[in-house]
Every structure is written in structure tokens, then in C-alpha cells.
Amino acid sequence: MSIFNDIAQGVVSAVQEHFRLSAPSKNDSSTGIRSSGLDLANPQKVQQCYRWNRRKCVRAITQPSSARCPVKLEETFNYFRGIWETVGSPAERPLPEPPTRPPVVEILSRDFVADCLRSCENSSPGEDLISYRHWREIDPSCTVLTRLFNICLQVADIPASWKFSRTILIHKKDELDRLDNWRPISLSNTIYKLFTKCMARKLSDWCEMNEVLSSAQKGFSPFDGVLEHNFLLAQHLESARRVKTDKFTVWLDISNAFGSVPKQVILDSLVACGVDVDFVTLISNIYEGSTTRVLTEEGPTPPIKILSGVKQGCPLSGILFNLAIDKVLHTIQENREHRAVLAFADDIVLMSDSAADLQELITTTSDELRALCLHLNPRKCATLHLSGRVPTGSRNSTFLLDGVPVSALEDGEEYKYLVKPAGFFLQKNFRTANEALSLIEKLCGSQLSQWQKLDALKTFMFPTMSFAMRTAQLGKTDWAEVDLAARREIKNILSLPSNASNHYIYGNRKLGCCGLPSAAQDSDYYLVDSAFKLLTSKDEEVAIQALGQLTRTVRHRLGR
């Protein structure tokens, strides 16, 4: 293995030398989180940054400096050391006889690795300073990378230098001085992230081919899980008014889900679903000896061993976590005719037709997760008892989670589930449209060149509205206001008079036009596309409910 370590390090050193990437000095490495240093008033610097990394440049233009964690280095070190270096003891349960299934991966082809590399966004590099763009330029056919990765498969291990990472803290919400309100994101070397991306794709394809995961789990899957889960939840609540009955829902939050799941739980779940021994050994060795240093205002912490949890930011973490809790989802749904649980990674929703049954579901879920050393956080959970009987609205029902009452939503109160607000009698939310207007103003007022501004609008502004359009959060007239503001700024960028024809803005680029989308028109397209996706979903429950809603809508419109 030492020879392989030297070979891998030699490849990295050659790339660093080719691009003149000097490793940070000891003085630099001891500093804390550094600012990007982008001078937004300098057109040359801004345009150069956009050509190198569009996402990073747009983030610097549109988003203010993110809040930094004020917690002291020693406290941060002790907190994460207590999480990652604490090995949980999952409940001992007999493992069923695993099914016999084909290997997850035997060898990687150059085309497959190249496809994975092409799909990688040029995000922040690791300590070796090598970005995905560097790899694409120096090894476009992925010949060297493929050979390195196939050696990893043969020895079922990765080079020691790939096991080191830095961790940054991203604020989620609420108080800044509470470390549980900060999400740890691992920044590993890009060669490691590319390899684990290849493994994650192979494992995901293997799970889909063998139908391993519960149909309730839509996180990190080929399904449009956000759309489908929001649709099923909306249908569950809408049926209360349609059938004039009561419906019960609870949104559950797992405390530090990705950082708490024991390594043994992950390995046991892989074995239980029939993953081959070589791949299980590879996953075990990837985490064996892994360390990270958390970046703070005072500098990086001492190295912390990762003995528990998965690394957020690692491409493998999502599918591994899904497999770890899959048994929980199967237990909840067992012997139930209709969907009782929705899961998007660690975001879990339970649905029932009776209060007693929902309480039983909550207790079962808590017990099953506790057996995996995972714990629910009652403070961040919420329930909704919606009654379709007159007067239609929420009811104040109490549900207990480990003896602690869970907060109940009232009329007008919302719980944000997978971006979309959920609740009863919610007011129209113009936040998405307002954010789009703010993006238009910031991008068009920046020092980007003309073509870069148009490219940024198409690439980063319009896509921010797609989910709100898919889920019909605003009407077509509301999106038309966004179009009006965008047209005004675009004509100003192109030095066009205000009464210039709009066809030049929206026309096809092949005909010499700008080819910008229209939010109002796209809102119609997205609704049709969403309906088609739901009706043709591979999830039978989704397709049946979508067809039922379509049938009811047509009958209502025809008056039959």
C-alpha cells in the first residue's frame, strides 16, 4: 500500500507543479477562515472570476458574507470531538441472511469516470489546491484517474492522503452561538471526491436495479423526490377537506443525523442488502483513519478522528445514510395499505388517519432510530391535526415524543418541508419572486460583462424560481411582474430603448436573439411537466394519486 500511496502522491505533485499550485505555508495553514478577496468593484477581477468559477463569482455578488461561527476553538474542538470520536453502540439484532446479488462495481471505465468528472461543479478545492477544472485540463480522457481508481478497487482502500479533510461550518438558522445550529461541511481533495462520486453512482444504480431502498425514501435518488413528497403530503391534507374527515401529520427532525450514525450501522446495512464483501471492505477502509480539522475564527482545530457518522460534503454520505435508516422506513410502513412515511434522507414525515395511530408511529420511529444511535429532536418537530369537518381547520391535539409534547401547528402557521411551506390557511408567499427580483438587480448592477450578465441570469436567476413554479406557489400574473423587471434590466444592459421589441430577448439564439426564458410562460410549462412526471412516476402510490387528482379535476371542470 505504501507504493500506491507514493504513486498517488506523485500524480498530485505533478499536477501541482504543472499548474504552479504552491502548497500553503505553515503560517497560512494556521489561519482561520479566509475571505475570498474578490474586489467586486474591479471589472477585470470580477469577469476573470466568473470565467474560472461562475457559481463562486455569483455567490460573491449576490450573497452577503455568510455569518461565521463565533464559538471558540477549544469549545468547537471538544464539541465535534465528542460527536465524531464517540462510537455509538447500536442495539444488537440478528442480521437476516443477506440476498445473493451481483457486485456493486468490478472495474471503472474511462468513459464512466470522465462522465462523472464532467458533471462536477468547479467547487472549492481541498488542501492540495487542485480543482476539478485542473483535472479536466490535464487528464481530459481520465486515463490516469481511471487507473488510480481501479487500483483502489483492487486493494479495497484509498491512499492515506485522501483521508484528510477540512471542515467548514455553515449556519442553518437560529442562535449563532449554538454549535448544533451549524452544519459541518467536509472539504476534501477533489480526487477523493471524484472517486467517491463514482462509487456513489455505482451504488445508487445498484440499489435501483435491485430495488433495495424503501419507496418512501427519495433523497439522493433518481426520483424527483422533492416534487413527489410534497405532492403526497398535499394530497394527504387535501383529502381531509374533500372527504370531510381528520388527517394527522408529524414532521420529524433527527439531531445531527449524518454525524451520529455509527460506522457499524452503515456496514451492517450494506451487508444486509447483499452488497459484496469487496465493496463493504472498501467503504470500511475509506473511513478507517479518516481525520478532519474544523476551521474556526482562531484557526483550525487539532485533527479529529471520524469514528462515527458520515462526512457531509462527501458524495457517498447520502446513499450510505439512506441505507443505514432503510430498515426503519420498512418497519414503519410494514402492513400498511397507504403511505405512512415520507423520507428525504433525514427529513421524515409521518401521516395517519387517526391520532392513536400517529402516536404509535411516532413511538415506533423514535424506538427504531434510537436502536441505530439516532435521536429525534422534539424542539424542531411539529404536528398538524387537520379536520375537514365544519369548521374546517386545525385542531389542538397533543402528541408526545419520548414524553415531550410536540408543538402543534395552528391555522396560518407553516412548517417548511423540502423548501415548500406546509400547513393550513397559509398566506401567499412572495419570497421566491422577491428573491428573483433582488438577484436581477444585483447581477445586472455588477461589474460582469454584458454576455456574463445574460449568462448569469439564465444560469442562476431563472432556475431559482423553478420549484415554486412546479408547486404552483404563485400565479402566472405574479411571475409576469418578474418578467417585467427582467426585461427592463436586460434592455438596459443591451442599450436598447424601452419600447424595443421583446422578441429579441426571448427569441432563439440560433436566430441571433438572446434566448432568455420567460417566467410567466415557464410557469405553465413547469406545471404541465410536473403533472406529467407525477402521472408517469415509477412510484405506484404517486402515479395512482396523481391520476385520481386529474380525474377529479376533469369531472369538476366538466360538471359531471
TrEMBL record:
InterPro entries: DNA/RNA_pol_sf, Rev_trsase/Diguanyl_cyclase, RT_dom. CDD domains: RT_nLTR_like. GO terms for biological process: DNA biosynthetic process. Signal peptide: none annotated. It comes from the Eukaryota. Pfam families: RVT_1. This is Retrovirus-related Pol polyprotein from type-2 retrotransposable element R2DM. Residues 151-406 form the Reverse transcriptase domain.
